[in-house]
Amino acid sequence: MALRLWARLLRGSAVLSSRGVGSARQESASWLLTAGNVACCRGGRNGFIFTPACFITSEAFLNRLMKGNAAEADSSFYRLPASVPPDSGEQLSLLLRHPDQPDNSKVLKVAIIGPPNAGKSTLSNQLLGRKVFAVSKKVHTTRSRALGVVTEDDTQIILLDTPGLTTPSKVKRHQLEKSLLVDPLNTVKEADLVVVVVDVADRWMSSRLDFEVLKCLAQHPDIPAVLVLNKVDLVKAKDKLLDITAGLTCGMVNGRRIRVRPVIKPPWAKKRSEGDSELSPDEHIAEPEGSAETNSVLNKEQLKTLKSQEGWPHFKDVFMLSSVDSQDVETLKSYFMAAAKPAPWQYHSEVLTDQSPEEVCTNIIREKLLEYLPQEVPYSMTQSVELWQDGENGELDISVKLHATKETHMKMVIGAAGQMVARIAREAGEDLSHIYLRDVKLKLSVKLRK
What's the farthest any 2 CA atoms get from each other in the chain? Predict the structure, then answer.
C-alpha cells in the first residue's frame, strides 16, 4: 500500500506543497513521499513554500483518521478543559477518583523520548492544550518522568514526557539525578507507542539518531515507534527535510523503502488500480531482531551494529512539525486519537497530570531560573515551599525559598535591587495562574545553603 507524505491536515485535505506565488498561470508544485518514491514537482518562479505539519502514513490509516475527524465534527459533546487543582488533597482525590469513562472508551499510552532540548516538553504542553511541563533552552529541564492526560470524547491519551536521554558518564560527571538515566527506559516499557523527537534545526542532531535513542528503540522493538521532526520552522532549506527523513529512517518507513524521484503529475491525480495496495515481496522489510520478545539487554554485537547506524528503519510514521504551533500539533494529536485501542480509561476526565501542585510550582520556578541565570547556577539551586494557602480575596498565596550553594550565585538570583528574583516570581506566578485557573501571588526569597 503506497505511503504518502501528507502535510497539514485541514478537514481532510492533503498538503505538503509548494506554490508559485506570482501569476495565476504559474504551475503549482508539490512534494510527495511514498514507499517507493519521494516526488517533487517544482513550478513557479518564486521557489518552494513550505507548509509544516506533515506526516507519512498508510492510506488505510489516513482513511480511519478522516472518519475520526468527521465524527468529531458531528459530535455535540463538549468537555471543559482540565486544570491542576491548587490543593494537594484535591489533586490526590482526583487521581484516585474512578474514571468517568463512556461505553466505548479507548486509550493510548505515548512515551515521548529524544535527546536533551529536542522540544519534548513543548510538544507535550501543546498536546495537553495548557502549559504544565517546564520548558527552557537549556538541557535537562525535565529531570524525571512526568505524566499528562488528554481526554476527548471517548478517547484518553496518556502522555509520558521523559528527561532527555543521556549517558551514565555524563550523569556522573555533572552529578545529575539518576532519574535522567532510569526514567526514559522504564517509561518506554509501559507505552503503546513511542514518539522519538528530533530537533532538525540542530545540524548535529538531525544528521543521525542519538545513540541512546537507538539503544532504547532496539531494547523494545515490539513497541511501535514514530519519528517527529521538530522545529521545521527554523530550517530555511525545506528540501533538506526529505534528506533528513531518509537518513533518520535508513530509507525505510512502515516496512517500505523510500527514494526520491521527480514527477510531472501529482500521483493522487492518477486513478490507482486495486492492485496498487498490495506489497511486492521485495518491498517488505524484516522486523527487528527480537520483535517477538523484548531484549532488555543488548549484546556487544548488537551495540556495535547500532553504532554504525544513522537511523532506525522500523518507524511506522514520520511527522514534520513545529511544536510551538498548535495547529501543527493538532495533526499529531489526531493521529494519536485514531491509533487508540479499546480499553478502560486509567484516569478521570478532569485529570491533567499526575504531578502534585507543589511539583508543578517548583518545576515552573526552575524553568525561570534556567531561562535567566547563566551556566551552572540554576542547576545548583534547590527549593523549599514555605507557604501554600488561600488568600483573603480568593487568590493562592505561595512562598518558596531558593537555596544557593555560593554567595555569588545568590547575588545573581537576587539581581540588582532585587529585580531578577522579582521578575522570576512575577513570570512564574503568571504561568501558575494559567495552570491552576486562579490568581497566584508568588513570593520568592533566596538563602545561602551552608
Answer: 76
Residue 322's CB is within 10 A of a number of other CB atoms, namely 24
The whole-angstrom separation of Cα 285 and Cα 402 is 54
Residue ranges matching CATH 3.40.50.300 in the chain: 83-261+301-342
* pLDDT band (50, 70, 90) for residue 83: confident
Residue 231, amino acid:
K
- The b-or-e profile of 406-441 (16+ CB within 10 A means b, else e) is eeebbebbbbeeeebbeebbebbbebbbebbebebe
Q: How far apart are CA 417 and CA 182, in angstroms?
A: 42
Per the rule left: phi > 0, alpha: psi between -120 and 50, beta: everything else, 443 is: beta
Three-state secondary-structure class, residue 426: helix
Q: Range with the lowest mean pLDDT among 162-176, 197-211, 373-387, 420-434? A: 162-176
Do 103 and 336 touch, CB atoms closer than 8 A?
A: no
C-alpha angle 354/357/361, rounded to 5°?
A: 115
Domain with CATH 3.30.300.20 in the chain: 357-448
Q: Which helix (H) or strand (E) holds 157?
A: strand 155-161
Read off the pLDDT band of 158 (50, 70, 90).
very high
**Other Cβ atoms within 10 Å of 168 Cβ, number:** 10
Q: What is the pLDDT of residues 381-398, one digit of tens each?
A: 899 999 999 998 889 999
For the segment 153-179, the average pLDDT, to the nearest whole number, is 63
Residue whose C-alpha is closest to residue 309's, from 222, 241, 218, 225: 218
CATH 3.40.50.300 fits 83-261+301-342, yes or no: yes
* pLDDT for res 13: 33
**Residue pair 387/397 in contact by the 8 Å Cβ criterion:** yes
Fold for domain 357-448?
GMP Synthetase; Chain A, domain 3 (3.30.300)
400 vs 27, residue with greater confidence:
400
DSSP 322-374: -TT-HHHHHHHHHHHHHH-EE---SS-TT--BSS-HHHHHHHHHHHHHHHHS-
